[in-house]
Request: fold
Amino acid sequence: MKKHILSIFLLYIFNVSYSQNDISFLQKDKNKINVRYTNNFENLEVKNSKTGKTQIVKNIEASITGKDSHLETNDYNFDGFTDFASFHTDDGMGVYSIYQIFIFNTKTQQFGLLEFPTNFKSKCDMFCDVKVDKTKKTLTSSCRGGARTHNDIWKYDRNKKLILSKTESY
Reply:
């Protein structure tokens, strides 16, 4: 009986700790940012300690089947400032995570959505399972199509626009 209670308790603890529903981080200028979901994962509330203002980001893509959304931080545009992403498991087979990436704007001190570039022939039609390579300064988006896995490798051009560098399929 004690083993079962311990197992249930540990399962509960690991299940709760896996979900990142709010995050806090410091920018390189020591500005503290707090991000949390509101309205059943449909909005984000972003508090900025430097400006004292709260930014509300509406219409976050959330799972229609009730799968949890999560937050993570990274420098998605390689400018030295911390950005963040909201992601959830896809509503189909659940084989990848769908990302919405938010880039920090140093002028406005707010975050803006990194729009998925549609003027390229990428294999993935959205940001999926995003991996950041800080050495090569690339973002890799991975998705599946039938029995194949596709990787779209994105980089920033001189004008800080995201462009498709190459696509791999295997």
